[in-house]
Amino acid sequence: GSPFSLSDLGMILAGQSGLALLPCRLVGNSAMIVPPESHRNRTQQGFTLLELLIVVAILATLVAIAVPGLAYYVDKTRYQVAISDLRSISLDILVYHQENNAYPDSLHEVGRGASRDPWGNPYQYLRIDGAGVNGRGQYRKDRNLVPVNTDYDLYSKGKDGKSASPFTSALSQDDIVRCNNGSYFGLVSDY
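The structure assignment produced for this chain is given below.
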């Protein structure tokens, strides 16, 4: 019989190709497959409140996991920068000693008086060799209360910005120090 319309042809072709029968619309000389109303509305709605809350909860969990790890690496990097600074200042002091046959009385004499550690505190320096008996109570001391240097003390007060001369003090545990006349640079807690 009866002749098929272009719309009927689209329905038949869609059915033979294994697709579900979809309605067709004639636009100009061609047929377009028109999705059902439920599909059109779904793509225009966006995300539901529940979907957004789930995404926010997942992101909050990831941030809570990542932040402590990031803080650890930031602190570790700052400790390494302080150690590098102490080594560099020690070289400047060594050059000064070779040129003047004496250690400087302050870091200003080697051009490092304005040097600050990664936490914004000035580096601490105390001349020992050639300084006389004054200041012996200020010398940095190990766990046996023996001075850790015989030439000079050079250190950073660390993250908390506080320090005490004996390494046994809780205030000294995060200090970055030069010990054994330059054989050790690092944290007091690791010495």
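Interim note for the steering committee: The beta strands are 24-27, 30-33, 124-127, 152-156, 176-179, 184-187. The two ends are 100 Å apart (CA to CA).
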